[in-house]
């Protein structure tokens, strides 16, 4: 690198700091203080000397020496790096601490409530559903005047979140209530296996939590036979069933129509 100072430019600013001897000056002036021990690697300086007026030449030489001294004391040039940008941002913004939290989230199923319908229900052995106690539903044969004891199902219909759980696959999400009561069937875990129970609730609304999925059953219709089954949404593969024996509680099974009855006929609205 070659550097040729402009003496005319440096002269005025440098002489404000130092004053030197001249041929026409009779008073003692302060001599320039030059530190020539400092070095700056990689910097080359080219000096040109020309003949001219003695006073002007002396002053220019002095200014040149001061300029050289200041140049040698300047820090070496350093290329701008990515780390310099990081340090610059750190000076502007306050540090922000982060903490990593390990967690998992499973999306809750969503069922949109649409409407409700009422049906009479019989299993394929012609047993009716009867509410024997406030929380006990049994299946038995009814004839004559006792036929009025049978209950109707109030079936709440829902629209599923995903198409594979919808009407196209024959799986219609429903909630099974007892007409005239605020009682709905629910499937909950009891010990190692699920069980069917009646709960007092009003779920004729959207189902948006895993907890309320216990009230949802998939209605699986067989149009050719005119029958249907009800599979638990909370426990897939488990179906609402009745016993082969009369006056037994309505329950749930994972072995439909083997030692029990899990197929029904619905009629009326």
UniProtKB/TrEMBL annotation:
Extent of the signal sequence: none
Keyword Secreted belongs to the record: yes
Keywords: Cytokine, Cytoplasm, Inflammatory response, Lysosome, Mitogen, Pyrogen, Secreted
Pfam families: IL1, IL1_propep
Domain Interleukin-1 propeptide: 1-94
Alphabetical GO biological process terms: cellular response to lipopolysaccharide; chemokine production; cytokine-mediated signaling pathway; fever generation; immune response; positive regulation of cell division; positive regulation of gene expression
SUPFAM superfamilies, A to Z: Cytokine
Subunit details: Monomer.
Family: Belongs to the IL-1 family.
Record protein name field: Interleukin-1
């Amino acid at each position: 690198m070659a550097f040729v100072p402009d003496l005319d430019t440096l002269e005025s600013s440098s002489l404000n700091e130092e004053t030197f001897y001249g041929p026409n000056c009779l008073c003692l002036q302060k001599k320039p203080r030059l530190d020539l021990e400092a070095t700056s690697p990689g910097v080359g300086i080219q000096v040109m000397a020309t003949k001219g007026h003695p006073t002007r030449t002396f002053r220019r030489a002095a200014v040149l020496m001061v300029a050289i001294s200041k140049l040698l004391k300047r820090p070496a040039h350093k290329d701008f790096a990515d780390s310099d940008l990081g340090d610059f941002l750190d000076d502007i913004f306050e540090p922000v601490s982060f903490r990593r939290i390990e967690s998992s989230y499973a999306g809750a199923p969503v069922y949109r409530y649409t409407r409700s319908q009422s049906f009479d229900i019989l299993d394929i052995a012609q047993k009716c559903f009867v509410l024997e106690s406030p929380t006990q539903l049994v299946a038995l044969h009814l004839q004559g005047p006792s036929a009025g004891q049978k209950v109707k199902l109030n079936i709440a219909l829902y629209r599923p979140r995903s198409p594979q759980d919808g009407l196209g696959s024959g799986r219609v999400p429903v909630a099974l209530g007892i007409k005239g009561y605020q009682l709905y069937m629910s499937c909950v875990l009891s010990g190692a296996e699920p069980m069917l129970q009646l709960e007092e609730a009003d779920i004729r609304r959207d189902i948006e939590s895993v907890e309320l999925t216990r009230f949802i059953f998939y209605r699986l219709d067989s149009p050719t036979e005119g029958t249907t089954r009800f599979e638990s949404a909370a426990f897939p593969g488990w179906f609402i069933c009745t016993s082969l024996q009369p006056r037994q509680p309505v329950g749930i099974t994972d072995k439909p129509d083997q030692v029990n009855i899990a197929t029904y006929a619905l009629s009326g609205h």
